[in-house]
């Protein structure tokens, strides 16, 4: 992490950036609290209870979120978008994988708990998914987050494959659906997150099944050193 020279005062844009980061941190903390309460108590939890447990005033809660269900969106978005950021990054090694392999690896990494915080996030997600049958608004947030994830995946796959709009949209829909269904199937049972029936294993099987008919994914990822933007 770079540090600005002592003689250089912070710019307005830097202060705004810090403000936005703090806002995002507050939203994520409220989201974690909301997820934990939904997982524990289901749809009966109120926005005021979430605010109190998160240590903020109800007015602050409603400044960030319209409804109690909206409060979990930042936490869900972190999970479903992490793999897109991974996929969009440069390929490691002298022999880049195919786009299909890169998709699969990124999804596996996103759903493999790398530490206590990641394990806890998956537990909260399991609890949220189990609470959704009693709260259609909560399920709507889940599907909205995944729709936004699919839309974000489209330009990444277009760049990596060079394929036409139909193939790219089909690939984005297939990959995003594989990830969503893997988490939903895992959440419905009691298997551990890192076991043979965990979400990382399930997404691998789902990704292979849903993308099997898309030869556009067989091409190698472009080498960032030779790209021309």
Automatic annotation (TrEMBL):
Could you tell me which Gene3D superfamilies the record lists for this protein? Answer: Tetracycline Repressor, domain 2 (1.10.357.10)
Origin: domain of life = Bacteria
Record key words, sorted: DNA-binding, Transcription, Transcription regulation
List every stretch annotated Disordered: 1-21
Cross-referenced PROSITE patterns, in alphabetical order?
Answer: HTH_TETR_2
DNA-binding region residues: the ranges are 46-65
Q: Which GO terms describe its molecular function?
A: DNA-binding transcription factor activity; transcription cis-regulatory region binding
Q: What is this protein called?
A: TetR/AcrR family transcriptional regulator
Report if keyword DNA-binding is assigned: yes
**Domain HTH tetR-type as annotated: residue spans:** 24-83
Matching InterPro entries = Homeodomain-like_sf, HTH-type_TetR-like_transc_reg, HTH_TetR
């Amino acid at each position: 992490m770079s540090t600005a020279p002592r003689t250089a005062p912070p710019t307005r844009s830097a202060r705004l950036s810090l403000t936005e980061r703090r806002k995002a941190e507050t939203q994520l903390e409220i989201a974690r609290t909301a997820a934990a309460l939904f997982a524990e108590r289901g749809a009966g939890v109120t926005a005021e209870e979430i605010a109190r447990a998160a240590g903020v005033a109800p007015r602050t809660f409603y400044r960030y979120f319209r409804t109690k269900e909206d409060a979990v969106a930042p936490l869900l978005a972190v999970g479903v978008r992490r793999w897109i950021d991974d996929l969009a990054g440069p390929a490691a090694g002298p022999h880049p994988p195919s786009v299909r392999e890169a998709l699969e690896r990124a999804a596996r990494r996103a759903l493999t708990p790398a530490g206590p915080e990641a394990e806890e996030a998956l537990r909260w997600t399991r609890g949220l998914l189990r609470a959704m049958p009693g709260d259609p608004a909560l399920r709507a947030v889940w599907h909205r987050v995944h729709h936004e994830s699919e839309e974000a995946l489209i330009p990444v796959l277009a760049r990596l494959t060079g394929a036409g709009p139909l193939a790219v949209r089909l690939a984005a829909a297939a990959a995003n659906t594989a990830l969503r269904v893997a988490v939903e199937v895992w959440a419905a049972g009691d298997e551990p997150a890192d076991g043979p029936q965990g979400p990382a294993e399930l997404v691998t099987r789902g990704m292979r099944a849903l993308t099997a008919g898309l030869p556009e994914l067989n091409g190698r990822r472009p080498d960032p050193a030779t790209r021309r933007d």
